Amino acid sequence: MRKWMLGGLIGLGLAVASGAADAATVLRVTSQMPAKHHVGQNLLAFKEIVERESKGDIKVEIYPASQLYKDAETPQAVSTGAVDMGSVSLAQFAGTIPAVDVFYVPFLFDSNERVRAATAPGSPIRSALDAAILETGSRVLWWQAFGGSILITKGFEVRNPDDLKGKKVRVFGKTLGRFIEAVGGAPTMLSGSEQFIAYQRGTVDAGMTGITTVPARKLYQVTDTMTVTNNADVEFIVIVNEKVWQGLTDQQRAIVTAAGRTVEADLRNKMEQLEADALVETKKHMKVIELTPAERAKWRAATEPVIAEFKQWAGPLGAKLITEAQALK
Question: Could you say which DSSP state residue 145 is in?
Fold first, then answer.
């Protein structure tokens, strides 16, 4: 039988077996993605390493597919200690840290090389965002590559910016919303777990998501066309409640940190292949439109004003990150 630890760890979900000096520490992790998605598999790989390296001293319990919290609820759930850890899209911090939306600035991270440089441990962009998130009460343990953004529709095709005029489009961030507005569409904020029903019921006409999400969530059952816009880079992060983190021993923190870095590097290295595999699978179920350079140039021109807007509303940190990103090769 378990009981909560006394003192500062009460209610934080860091459990110990009653009366046992060497009881296992339990870390509960919430995630919106299904276990079979690459983000879910990444968490399972972390669990395996931590439990093996700690020799059972640390137990990791994963709750996928929004069993505990939706993506939008995860930052607060972790920062308050309602759950120990969470895998969450970086964009969910935009309410308190607008600069996190830098990865959604149109076509700023449209190559694997630029994404790798920006998200590498210790990079100026990543370090600044990790530090800002720590101030919310959650520590970033590692980043989870999610992939480039695409558009999915039902009953019509999107090839040029004008094709979205007057259309309701699911987005998952403020800057993505401005992207849609810039081409004449109406953005609708919806969590990942709400997408399927929204497309099924016609709540939205189109949706923006990551390509790997289409087969993982079987979105091809409720949409019929995908446009590979690659206008933004989607990043997830794994966060831990800072008080929970400080309650771990030095050895436990070392094990968790090393495991996080290992699975982060593994996923980043696999991302291109994962997207390629998802594209092949998606083509079995729906039409896929891959934009020509000329068509992409039209999208860039139509959404260029979003860059200046982002600098204004994201403040000094946002402007600094834009400069850092534009300097990347």
Answer: E
Burial class from Cβ neighbours inside 10 Å (0-12, 13-18, 19+) for residue 190 reads buried
CATH number at residue 235: 3.40.190.170
Q: Half-sphere exposure (CA, 13 Å, Cβ side) for 286?
A: 27
Domain hosting 153: range is 2-326
Containing 219, the helix (H) or strand (E) segment is none
Q: How far apart are CA 44 and CA 61, in angstroms?
A: 9
pLDDT in tens, 2-42: 333 333 333 444 444 334 446 899 999 999 999 999 999 99
Cα angle, residue 110 at apex, residues 149 and 292 outer, rounded to 5°: 85
Residue with tokens 């998605």: 37
Residue 137: name the closest of 67, 50, 78, 192 by CA.
78
pLDDT tens for each residue of 55-87: 999 999 999 999 999 999 999 999 999 999 999
Tell me the CA distances in angstroms from 144 to 3, 14, 37, 214, one per residue in order.
32, 24, 12, 18
> Taking a C-beta distance cutoff of 8 angstroms, is the pair 273, 38 a contact?
no
Our count of domains for the chain comes to 1
Cα 11 from Cα 21, distance rounded (Å): 20
pTM, 2 dp: 0.88
Q: What is the dihedral of CA 208, 228, 43, 94, to 10 degrees?
A: -40
